[in-house]
Structure formats: structure tokens, C-alpha cells
Amino acid sequence: MAHHLHIEETTYEIQAPVRAPSLGRLLGETDLDTRRLVISMLIRAALVAFAAFLLWSREELDLASTTDQVVLVIYAVFILFPLVHVRDSIKFYQNGIAYNGKPCIFQTSKVTWSKRTGAGYFMAYEMLQMAGMPKGTNVSYIKDAQELFDGFYRKPGAPAAQERTLST
Is the N or C terminus of the chain more exposed, i.e. has fewer CB atoms within 10 Å? Predict the structure, then answer.
């Protein structure tokens, strides 16, 4: 079975001071996209329910066995995994951002957003990449992260410095 990973990356310049001594004044903030979190968990729950139904219909499901109990725990972790993003947030400042409370002052005037689909992921996810942040910061569960970022920092009318689409 072939996996199809599709990545759309957009790199552009921002209009904000770089290497400033502090974050500056707060411009805005955003936090958890509850709708996305719930949808992600529902998709996972549906997959687990389907798998459990197949096992039950073949009479291979025995909740008294240790193996099946371990499998149920694994299923529960799988369903609940998106909850690791419950406290995700971004605060937008004049000279940088604070991602989950960790400050990041702009080091360069370039930023890259990437949207990835396929390769086993249930929903597309967004990554923010900029100097001074952990590589490939997942901002998928933050409401309107890219739109707000663009509104605060993208140069008006500036075309993307680089857009590329990768597919495998």
C-alpha cells in the first residue's frame, strides 16, 4: 500500500523587527481549536469502533484476556492522543511570539508554514518554522494560527518568497 505524503510549504518575509531585546507589546493571542480536537478524536474513535466491531463479529474479541485488555489500553491512548494539544496557544507580540508560553523573538525576517496531508495522518496538519523555534512546530490545534500570524506580520501585498509542493 503506497503512502502519499503531500506537503505545501510557503516561505515569506515578515514585517517585524529582528533580534529585538524583548518581545514588545502584545498584539493578540489564540488558543485551542476545540472543534478540530473533537473531530480528530471522533475520527480515531470511529476507526477503533470499526476495528472492535470486526473483531467482535469474528468472535475474536475476549475482554477477559490480558492481550485484549492491553489492546484496549492502546486503543484508548490512540483515541486520546490529541489531548496533548489541549494547552496549545500562541501569543503574538510586536517582536516575536510566545508558543505555549515559550518566548521566541524573531531572529530573521523569514518564516515558513507547511501543510502536510497523507502518510497515515487523519487530518492535515500545519507546521510553523522560524529561527529560534523548535524545528517543525505543530500548530494544527491552535485556532486560526496562520491567519492571525499573517495578519500581524506578513508584509501587505508581498508575494510568497517561495512556494513549493512536495508529493511522494
Answer: N
